[in-house]
Amino acid sequence: MVQAKIRLYVDHPLSEGQTVPLTKEQSHYLFGVMRQDNGAFVALFNGADGEFLAEVTKANKKNGELVCRAKTRDVQMPPDLWLMFAPIKKARTDFIVEKAAEMGARRIVPVNTAYTNAERIRQDRLQAHALEAAEQCGGTYVPEVTELQKLDRLLADWDETRHIMFCDESLVGAAQALGDVAGGKWAILIGPEGGFSQAERDRLHALPYAHAISLGPRILRADTAAVAALTVWQQHLGDWS
Length: 241
Ligand code: SAM
Fold this sequence. Notes:
Bound molecules: S-adenosylmethionine
Oligomer: single chain
Structural class: alpha/beta
Strand content: 15-25%
Low-confidence stretches: none
CATH architecture of the largest domain: 3-Layer(aba) Sandwich
Shape: elongated
Radius of gyration: 20 Å
């Protein structure tokens, strides 16, 4: 079977024989930038129906069209893992979202904590980063990036069957202690540049479903900590081991 070099996320149902209209941006990218023509093949995925090999049937820079010729992969769901992180500077927040999508987070939840600097986020821009990361890394699933949520509110309504891997910088230097915990539904929690307040720390330590862990003997930047925590979790409980 033909191997498509280009992968494109489309917000459209996919099935064999399905005609898929492209947006203006996708048409410009495929036919203006990537110079594809009629008869070329592209891998399409929508995060739900799997991946399809699709043939260009209308190479038009404004409103191109493809037809799905064959299903090439089923959708591969990542583990039920959320990444909750306090937004930091824009570029580094973009980085955290991109890495979380590549590393197998199912949901990405920007959280407002006591010491979080960024009052607002551009959820649409962050969602686009997650989508581009999925296109690039071969993922067939795109994690949802939620709106900015208050940590207090999230914890007040928490589903107690979802464990929390609480990356607590005050444990810096302590042994890495995820220990023998169960799999299932999890969320990683990473704080802001200013770290967690003592009230937040006390509250989280008191939660039976929160597991406070160290990420080694040095204080990591929040974006480094997010990648390190995702690696520890995936290696220990996720779809990497
Ligand atoms: N201002 C804090 C301080 O100096 O202690 C550092 C906060 S750190 C830049 C941002 C977040 O990364 C922390 O809230 C924590 O979630 C995580 N983090 C960084 N280093 C860590 C470590 N050694 N162990 C556990 N978590 C860590």
